[in-house]
């Protein structure tokens, strides 16, 4: 009798080459070093010294040469310093996407489901009787033939209009999203790095939209003393500044960006760790870092109410546990009728992913 012969188990190295393994780590380091190639390489050398990542066949020098030949790094035309290329920037975004959201295949469809049935792309499991105006493509022939058999039997089988069942499809709604990222100084205070998880989420969300929801739009802005937009390619280099938290400026800019978008589904995601502490009045900055300032709070609440009237929900992701901050978020959320999540740093990406995916099923009319 023929049997099986078992050999000694060998741990799998997941089939990745030495270059691919080092590249995964290198892309992670670039996120933490704000896209600084030299600093990332210093860290990689230290890790190699500590954990013996390379061997005699493939060293860090070989890795650097492969980065050059494969187009991941190139000399700066102005000063000759080695810089990462757009290919690497996209690689960092994809790495963040894979880490937070998992593997997602590229599609050309908008792929935003809604609960409104009609002529669309996504098949709905529910059926309904045929009505005048339905097309042949919508007929569920399996159910319709079964109805005819039940109604008239096999001997006198015939298909009538009242036997027909229609398989619904769902509309896929486009969505315009503005992601607001707090870059005030508190995002790196007390020995806790809050800006890196925020960057990872922004890079993952941008790559998600570009690959799975290409008809959607994503605008990214940062806010400190003021607010301004940044390009997706700028995300790896994003750093915290010596700023207060001007939430009002961020919300005003977000609303301005969304006014330019024509589709009706709009939303704001706000990642912050602190209360509003700054307001620009004319050319002057009004600041108060001690407690909740009523003047600043009232302006925030006014904008929350305006967003509600414009049917723009604001979802706040608060990465801090201070009771004063939670109280502000609760008041703000109540005024906007939006949502709030008090997210830990390691769960921030999962929170945003779930909210984005659930929000795409809703259509604002």
* Intertermini distance: 71 Å
CATH architecture of the largest domain: 3-Layer(aba) Sandwich
Rg on CA atoms, Å: 27 Å
Unreliable parts = 103-122
- Integer tally of domains: 3
Largest sheet: 6 strands, mixed
CATH class category name of the largest domain: Alpha Beta
CATH homologous superfamily of the largest domain - what is it? von Willebrand factor, type A domain
**Strand order, sheet with most strands:** 8-7-6-9-12-13
Structural class of the secondary elements? alpha/beta
Tally of extended strands?
Answer: 13
Strand content range = 15-25%
Helix content: 25-40%
Query: Kindly state the mean pLDDT as a whole number?
Result: 84
Q: How many helices?
A: 10
Question: What are the salient characteristics of this protein?
Answer:
six-stranded mixed β-sheet, 365 residues, 3 domains, 10 helices, single chain, Rossmann fold, alpha/beta, three-stranded antiparallel β-sheet, 19% strand, 38% helix
Quick rundown:
The protein is 38% helix and 19% strand. The chain is built from ten helices and 13 strands.
Any overview of this molecule?
Strand 7 and strand 8 form a beta hairpin. The chain has three domains: 18-84; 125-170, no CATH class; 176-359, von Willebrand factor, type A domain (Rossmann fold, 3-Layer(aba) Sandwich), CATH 3.40.50. The strands form four sheets. The chain has a six-stranded mixed beta sheet, with helices on both faces. The chain has 365 residues and is of the alpha/beta class. The chain contains ten helices and 13 strands.
SSE map:
Elements: H1 18-32, H2 37-51, H3 60-69, E1 73-75, E2 82-84, H4 86-100, E3 113-118, E4 122-129, H5 141-152, E5 165-172, E6 176-182, H6 195-212, E7 217-223, E8 227-230, H7 247-259, E9 266-272, E10 278-281, E11 284-287, H8 294-309, E12 314-318, H9 323-336, E13 339-342, H10 348-359
Parallel strand pairs: 6-7, 6-9, 9-12, 12-13
Antiparallel strand pairs: 1-2, 3-5, 4-5, 7-8, 10-11
Helix pairs in contact: 1-2, 1-4, 4-6, 6-10, 7-8, 8-9
């Amino acid at each position: 009798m023929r049997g099986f012969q078992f050999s000694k188990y060998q741990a799998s190295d997941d089939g990745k080459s030495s270059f691919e393994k080092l590249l995964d780590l290198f892309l992670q380091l670039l996120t933490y070093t704000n896209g600084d190639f030299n600093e990332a390489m210093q860290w990689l050398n230290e890790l190699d010294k500590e954990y013996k990542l390379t061997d005699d066949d493939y060293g860090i020098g070989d890795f650097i040469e492969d980065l050059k030949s494969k187009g991941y790094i190139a000399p700066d035309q102005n000063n000759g310093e080695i810089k990462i290329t757009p290919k690497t920037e996209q690689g960092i975004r994809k790495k963040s996407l894979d880490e937070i959201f998992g593997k997602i295949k590229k599609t050309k469809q908008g792929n935003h489901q809604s609960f409104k049935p009609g002529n669309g792309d996504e098949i709905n499991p529910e059926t309904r009787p045929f009505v005048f105006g339905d097309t042949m493509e919508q007929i569920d022939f399996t159910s319709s033939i079964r109805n005819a058999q039940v109604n008239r039997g096999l001997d006198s089988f015939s298909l009538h209009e009242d036997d027909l069942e229609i398989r619904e499809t769902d509309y896929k709604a486009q969505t315009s999203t503005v992601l607001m990222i707090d870059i005030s100084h508190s995002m790196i205070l007390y020995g806790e790095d809050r800006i890196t998880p925020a960057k990872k989420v922004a890079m993952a969300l941008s790559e998600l939209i570009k690959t799975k929801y290409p008809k959607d739009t994503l605008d990214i802005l940062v806010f400190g003393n003021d607010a301004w937009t940044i390009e997706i390619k700028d995300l790896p280099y994003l750093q915290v500044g010596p700023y207060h938290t001007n939430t009002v400026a961020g919300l005003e800019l977000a609303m301005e960006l969304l006014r330019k978008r024509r589709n009706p589904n709009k939303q704001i995601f706000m990642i912050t760790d602190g209360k509003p502490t700054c307001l620009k009045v004319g050319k002057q900055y009004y600041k108060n870092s001690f407690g909740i300032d009523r003047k600043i709070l009232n302006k925030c609440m006014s904008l929350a109410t305006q967003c509600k009237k414009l049917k723009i929900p604001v979802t706040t992701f608060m990465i801090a546990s201070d009771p004063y901050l939670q109280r502000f978020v609760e008041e703000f959320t109540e005024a906007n009728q939006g949502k709030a999540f008090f997210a830990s740093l390691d769960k921030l990406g999962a929170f945003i992913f779930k909210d984005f995916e659930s929000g795409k099923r809703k259509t604002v009319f």
